[in-house]
Amino acid sequence: MSVQLTRRAALALTGSFAFAGSSAFAQAPAFFRIGTGGTAGTYYPIGGLIANAISTPPQVISTAVASNGSVANVNAIVSGAAESGFTQADVAFWAYSGTGIFEGKPRIQELRSIANLYPESVHLVVRKASNVKSFADLRGKKVSLDEPGSGTLVNAKAILGAYGIGERDVSAEYLKPNQAAEKMKDGSVDAFFFTGGYPAAAISELASTGSGIDILPIVGAGAEKLAKDFPFFAADEIPAGTYKDVGAVKTVAVGAHWVTSSKIPAALVYLVTKALWSDKTRAVLDAGHAKGKSIQKATALSGLLGVPLHEGAARFYKEAGLMT
After folding, report:
1. Is the distance from CB of 76 to CB of 85 less than 8 angstroms?
2. CA angle 185, 187, 190 (to 5 degrees)
3. What is the pLDDT of residues 26-49, one digit of tens each?
4. Domain membership of residue 102 as a residue range
5. What is the C-alpha to C-alpha distance for residues 49 and 41, in angstroms, rounded to an integer?
6. How many CB atoms lie under 10 A from the CB of residue 26?
7. pLDDT tens, 210-237?
8. Which of 201, 235, 254 is the last residue of a domain?
9. Are 222 and 231 within 8 A, CB to CB?
10. Is this prediction's pTM over 0.85?
11. How many CB atoms lie within 10 A of CB 105?
12. CB–CB of 252/122 below 8 Å?
């Protein structure tokens, strides 16, 4: 059965049963795709864990879909190519309000929140041999800002700007993290940005090759300007030992949010949200990925920044006593 047919069936059932719960989907399974990110990042493995845990055939069948990241996921939700997706807090806010990178475009008013997941740390990975010790040293270097459609690209431009560096001041490339890491091995990339939960697979693999990496701290006047201009950023630290031979690094982070559309039936989103915070999902997240432990019901509503909750998610949080 196609996703379009499933939606119509689910809408019809929702109209008849409202929040009747799992029985509303007994006759027609509802497909719930989760747009994630590149396979070398954090969104993809976390999305896979969640999709597997919340799937309750024949009621709900969820799958994680690789994508270009935050902006691409928002666009996929709008177009109907995905029922939901992960996105950075800043991207979600700009999309809903028609500001920032969405300035001059129609507001995506149907965007709705399901949950805050975990903080995404900005990694600025540099090749030891490139001798980059500060942001000023990036001038003239080959720097990957990540691919179009990614939240990392948005962050990279903002961070460079906060330190007085423009795209033209570096030899910019626009690569996925795993592609950038491969090019760093042969010296054809000096540095690359990655925004995501640590540890990131591409960076872990790169650090273990013995070629030598550092992660540049995001501190000082530039970090202060960044936080003032973009309040989505918060101070963060990547712990020592997260990556081989890399000590603790002070950086910044943004929240990773799970979003959907107001057009998705409330009964379906209620079931998905309830399944996200079930004991089954808790066990899967704790065992499946280092960042999974950071996904906690107590912080599910933190930092949603003006993107309203989907009514199905709100019903669950009210039942759970997390909101009135």
Report:
1. yes
2. 100
3. 457 899 999 999 998 899 999 999
4. 3-117+256-319
5. 14
6. 11
7. 778 999 999 999 999 999 998 889 999 9
8. 254
9. no
10. no
11. 11
12. yes
